[in-house]
Amino acid sequence: MVLPAFLLPSPLHLRFNSSVSRNKLRRHVIASAQSHTAPSIQKTESSDVDVVVIGSGIGALTAAADLASKGASVGVLERYLIPGGSSGYFVRDGYTFDAGASMIFGFGERGTTNLLTRALACVGRKQETVADPVQVRYHLPGINIRVHQQYERFLEELIQRFPAEENGIRSFYAECWSVFNSLNAMPLRSLEEPNYLLRVFFAHPLPCLNLLRYIARNAGDIARKHISDKDLLRFIDMECYSWSVVPADLTPMINAGMVFSDRHYGGINYPVGGVGKISQELVRGIEDKPGCWVRYGARVTRVFFEGDRACGVQLANGSVITARAVISNATRWDTFGERGLVESQHVPPSEHRFRERYVKSPSFCSAHIAVRETDLRVSMREDDGMDCHHIMLDDWNELETAHDGKGTLFVSIPTVLDKSIAPEGKHIFHVFTPSWMDEWQGLSKQDYEAKKQSILELMIDRLERTLFPGLKEAIEFAEVGSPRTHRRFLGRVDGSYGPVAKKKLKGLLSMPFNRTDVDGLYCVGDSTFPGQGLNATAFSGFACGHRVAADLGLIETLPKPVDSFLTDLLSKTRLQL
Ligand SMILES: NC(=O)c1ccc[n+]([C@@H]2O[C@H](COP(=O)([O-])OP(=O)(O)OC[C@H]3O[C@@H](n4cnc5c(N)ncnc54)[C@H](O)[C@@H]3O)[C@@H](O)[C@H]2O)c1
Ligand SMILES: CC(C)=CCC/C(C)=C/C=C/C(C)=C/C=C/C(C)=C/C=C/C=C(C)/C=C/C=C(C)/C=C/C=C(\C)CCC=C(C)C
C-alpha cells in the first residue's frame, strides 16, 4: 500500500537523534557566526547546553523548569533586564506595578489544571497568593454583574438579570464545566507525543473523548445552542473578549471551558508581592538545577543551523550558544517573520499557513497610576464591596473599536488584595484599553506624549464619572504605555497581545503545537496551543518541555521510528481537518 504524502513520517524527525557531534556543531556555529558578525565571539564551555530558550515569559520558564527537573542543562536568554515578559513588573517610588498580566489563573491547590503552582513545584518553589473573591465586575450597558468565585452566587446574579434564560445560562456554563472536568481529570502534557496520548487515553477514555468533541468548536456556537436573548449573548461575547480579545464565535470552546470554570474551582489568586514574583521564583528554581542558568540583556538575533537542523543561537553581542534543541518564546512573527530569528531560507511553508489563519491581536494603551486612598470618595476596602478587577463598556457598538479610550476599559487594582505592593494608604490602578500600533506610528515626540496624555485623561474621566469619584484629585503620578511601549519592553511584534483567529476556525485544531517544521526548533508561549493567558502559556511550556524531553531521550517514548511516524500522522491529520 502506498501512503499518501501527508501520512509519511518526516525525514527531519527521524533524523533528530542522529548524533551530530557537539564539537562539529560548535565549529560550524562559530564559523558561521564569524562570517555574519563582528569578530568578538565569546565562547565558553558553559554555553554548551542541552536546550537553549529564547525569552523568559511564563511559557519559556515553564518549559525550562520542566526540562531542568528532568535533568537537562538549560540556558535561558532574556533580552530585557528582568524575567517574565508580559508578567514582568517595574518599581517607582515604592510602588510595584505589574507590567501586563494581573488576573492570574492556574494557582489553585487541587486538580491538574493549576499549572502555575505545578511549574513552580517542579523546581521546588512555591508562591504565596491571596484569593480574589470576585474574578471581575462587569459594568456594561444594562448589565452590572460580579463573577463571584462561588459559582452559584455568580449564576444567581446573572439569572436575576436574565430570568427567562435560567435554563440556557445553566446549560451553557454546564458545558464549560464538562470541558474543564475532563481536562482536570488527566495529567496535562504534550499532545504531540503518542506515548502520552495512548497512556492518557487508556487511563481516561471518557474525558479524552469529551475533549475531542469540543476541540474543534468555538464558544459562540455552544452559547447559541442554549441562549437566545441578544443582550445575554452580548454578555457571553464580553466574557470571551475580556481575555481572548475576540468574541465568542472566534473563541475556542476548550479555552472558554477552562476560563469559565477554573475561576470558580482553583479561583483567581494574586501572588503576594506582585505578579513579577512568579517568574522570579521560577528563575530561582531553574538556577538551582545543575547546569542551568538565566541571562539578562541577552538579545538573540538569530537561530543557527547545521544543514536543516537548528543547533544554537547567536546573540546581539556576537556570542553564540550551541544546543541540542532550541526553544523560541518570541512570537511566531518575531521567530519566523521578515526580520525574525529564522532566516528566510529556513522558514517552512507551514508558517505561511499559520499567517493565513491567524492575525496579530491589538496591543493595549495602558496607564499605571499611583493613587492616594484618602482623596477617593469611595471605599477601597474589599469588605465594603470594592473589587480588584473591573471591565467597563458604555456602548455595545464600541466593543471592538479601540480608539481614544472609548472602547472597553479594563481596570485592575491589585492593592485591594495585596497592600504590600504600594506605600501605606496608597493604591495602584492599572487601566488599559485595546489599541493598535498604526494609531501610534509616525508621531513626533511631542505629539506622541500629547496623545498618551489625552487618552489618560479620557480614561480617568470615564472612571471618575462612574466608579471612582475623586480619582482625578487622588492621583500622585501616572505612567502611560502605548503599543510602542509594549513592543519595546516585551519584544513583541507591534506590541500585540497574541495571535487571534483571522476568521472562524475549528476551535483549537489549527493552533500550532510546540514542534515546528524545522528540526531541532520548538516554539512556546501564546503563539502555540492553546494561546494567550499565563496558565495557557504554562500549559504550552509543559507540553514543549515534554516533547523536547522525549526527543532528547530524557523520558520514555515509543521506539523512535514509531514515535516519529505517529507524531507526524497526528499532526498532518489535524491540519487536514
Ligand atoms: N492574565 C492577564 O491579565 C494577562 C495580561 C497580559 C498578558 N497576559 C499573557 O501573558 C502571556 C505571555 O506569555 P508568553 O510566554 O507568550 O511570553 P511573553 O511575551 O510574556 O515573553 C516573551 C519573552 O521573550 C523575550 N524575548 C523576545 N524576543 C527575544 C529575543 N530575540 N531574545 C531574547 N529574549 C527575547 C521578551 O523580552 C519576553 O520577556 C500572553 O499569553 C498574554 O496573554 C496575561
Ligand atoms: C488521546 C486522544 C486521542 C485525544 C485526547 C484529546 C486531549 C487529551 C485533548 C487535550 C487537550 C488539552 C490538554 C487542552 C489544554 C488546554 C488548556 C490548558 C487551556 C488553557 C487555557 C487558559 C486560558 C485560555 C486562560 C486565559 C486567560 C487569560 C487570557 C486572561 C487574561 C486576562 C486579562 C487580559 C485580564 C483582563 C481584565 C481586567 C484587568 C479587568
CATH class group of the largest domain? Alpha Beta
Helix-residue proportion: 25-40%
Radius of gyration: 24 Å
CATH superfamily (homologous) name of the largest domain? FAD/NAD(P)-binding domain
Could you say which small molecules are bound to this protein?
nicotinamide-adenine-dinucleotide, lycopene
CATH topology value of the largest domain? FAD/NAD(P)-binding domain
List segments where confidence is low: pLDDT < 50 over at least 5 consecutive residues.
1-47
> How would you describe the shape?
globular
Beta content: 15-25%
> Based on the structure given, which CATH architecture of the largest domain is correct?
3-Layer(bba) Sandwich
Distance between the termini: 23 Å
Number of domains: 3
Q: How would you briefly describe this protein structure?
A:
This protein is globular.
Which labels suit this protein?
577 residues, alpha/beta, FAD/NAD(P)-binding domain, 3 domains, seven-stranded mixed sheet, 19% strand, globular, disordered N terminus, binds nicotinamide-adenine-dinucleotide, binds lycopene, EC 5.2.1.13, NAD, carotenoid biosynthesis
Write the layout of secondary structure elements.
Blueprint: H1 11-14, H2 22-36, E1 49-54, H3 58-69, E2 74-77, E3 89-92, E4 95-98, H4 115-122, E5 129-132, E6 134-140, E7 143-148, H5 151-161, H6 166-183, H7 194-203, H8 205-214, H9 219-226, H10 230-244, H11 253-265, E8 268-271, H12 276-287, E9 293-295, E10 300-306, E11 309-315, E12 320-328, H13 332-336, H14 350-357, E13 358-360, E14 363-372, E15 389-392, E16 409-412, E17 426-435, H15 445-466, H16 471-474, E18 475-481, H17 483-490, E19 499-501, E20 521-523, H18 534-551, H19 560-576
Parallel strand pairs: 1-2, 1-12, 2-9, 6-15, 12-20
Antiparallel strand pairs: 3-4, 5-8, 6-7, 10-11, 11-12, 13-19, 14-17, 14-18, 15-16, 16-17
Helix pairs in contact: 3-4, 3-12, 3-18, 4-12, 6-8, 6-9, 6-11, 7-8, 9-10
Bound molecules: nicotinamide-adenine-dinucleotide (NAD) and lycopene.
Lycopene binds at residues 102-103, 105, 136, 183, 188, 191, 197, 200-201, 208, 211-212, 242-243, 254-255, 258-259, 389-391, 410-412, 530-533, 535-536, 539.
